[in-house]
Write a structure and sequence with these properties.
CATH topology of the largest domain: Aminopeptidase
InterPro entries: Peptidase_C15, Peptidase_C15-like, Peptidase_C15-like_sf
Radius of gyration: 20 Å
Largest sheet: 6 strands, mixed
Keywords: Cytoplasm, Hydrolase, Protease, Thiol protease
Number of strands: 12
Number of domains: 2
Shape: globular
Protein name: Pyroglutamyl-peptidase I like
Pfam family, one: Peptidase_C15
Strand order of the largest sheet: 2-1-3-8-4-7
GO molecular function, one term: pyroglutamyl-peptidase activity
Number of helices: 8
Length: about 280
């Protein structure tokens, strides 16, 4: 770790047909790409166990004191990504991989019936849905280990947590598509934490005072799973020929701006001149 703000990402362990849980694969992928130089990412695999889940999540908040915790689960039979707004405290009747479920069927006895994340997941989902990605807002996390872990983290982390259900089928199961999408989603959530008054802030905005476009790009690879319509808003595309753009202002790791020749990003160069 480099001393920056800590973001924790968890994925679940083996469960039924998933000898390696897709959520844990995604967490390891996020560890590789990171969130920039100013953010330390810590990943942890969580067994599909009520007792172990409580132990690990309590330890995360007590020892790492993260700025934000992102819990990844798998949406069986779905090809979409789900952003969960709410964690539920009761109704846990299904047994875990150890054959156990809480006697009280509660996550935290005496706790509120439900807790919402400080992040406006509806706003995040709307932004990405409008860009053509398969991201869906949800308020029902399923009342199993994903929901259980989410509520427990919201409770101990002053609601500074997210639960993202990743797909088990479809094109987004490919790491090349899923990991960049998750990276962008989490960046958007972190931006909202820093400026909660602007949950609908655009992912990219143009700067008409200079012959450049301000873009949040971590690396060329990070664009792999993002459709072209999400990369450049229509008003930027139409303005590009008039501005005669020759460079992009890249907001790279650590969110420090560097000038990048358009020719180094041939797919982006096509997007700019296509307007």
């Amino acid at each position: 770790m480099n001393g920056g703000e800590v973001v924790v990402v968890t994925g679940f362990g083996p469960f039924r047909q998933f000898l390696v849980n897709p959520s844990w694969k995604a967490a390891k992928g996020l560890k590789l790409v990171g969130f920039g130089e100013r953010t330390d990412i810590f990943i942890r695999e969580v067994p599909v166990s009520y007792v172990k889940t409580q132990q690990i999540i309590a330890e995360i908040w007590q020892t790492l004191h993260p700025k934000f915790a992102v819990h990844l689960g798998v949406a069986r039979g779905s090809s979409d990504v789900f952003l969960e707004q709410t964690g539920k405290n009761s109704g846990y009747r299904d047994k875990d991989v150890c054959g156990f479920c809480p006697e009280s069927q509660c996550c935290v006895e005496g706790g509120p019936e439900k807790l919402d994340s400080v992040v406006n997941m509806r706003a995040v989902a709307k932004e990405f849905k409008q860009a053509g990605t398969d991201v869906i807002y949800s308020r029902d996390a399923g009342r199993y280990l994903c929901d259980f872990a989410y509520y427990f983290s919201l409770y101990h982390g002053q609601r500074r947590a997210a639960l993202i259900h990743v797909p088990s089928s479809g094109s987004l199961t490919s790491a090349d598509r899923l990991v960049p999408l998750l990276q962008s989603l989490i960046h958007t959530m972190l931006d909202q934490l820093e400026d909660p008054q602007k949950p609908h802030e655009e992912m990219m905005t143009e700067d008409f005072s200079k012959p450049a476009v301000t873009a949040r790009v971590v690396s060329r690879q990070s664009w792999a799973g993002v459709p072209p319509q999400a990369r450049w808003p229509k008003h930027v595309l139409s303005a590009c020929p008039r501005l005669g753009l020759e460079t992009l202002r890249q907001l790279g790791p650590g969110r420090r701006e560097t000038q990048v020749p358009v020719t180094e990003y041939s797919d982006l160069a096509w997007g700019i001149t296509a307007g």
